[in-house]
Amino acid sequence: MAKLGCGSMTAFLLVLLILVALGSNEAVGYYFTHCEDRELMDCLMREVEADEAEEGDVVATGVYEYKGNAVTVTMTIPLGGGGVTGVVSGTCEGSFKGNYGDGALTGSMSGVCAPFFINIPASATFVGSVNKSAKTVPVTFTGRGGGITHEGAMVLTYP
Question: What is the CATH number of the domain that holds 75?
Fold first, then answer.
């Protein structure tokens, strides 16, 4: 390395710095997407396993678009009541937890949004209901991230 010179060494260090920055950005994105309550190293060193839907659960999906950015929401809802789980993918990546009972659906989401290829921590709270006859799940939400708050509504459907 001593004979490479200053220019080559600077280029090598610059490429190394860029790779470290990109890796750090992905690690932060993974952490906020999959590990809202666990420590960073514990989360990054373990594989996240998806919960399988139990009998009586439905999987509702929907797409929400805002200013040219789209997210797909997939929610597993126990029609008999209980814990709701799900994921958000697309411009924003994350997971959410909630509860369904007495016709009301509530919960929160944590993750990241990357509208400009940089992961920005984001969160949201939502409320809704389940229309069993129409097989729809109308939801209203308030999302926060990067100093911006956005309120919206969407309808998820299930087969």
Answer: 2.40.128
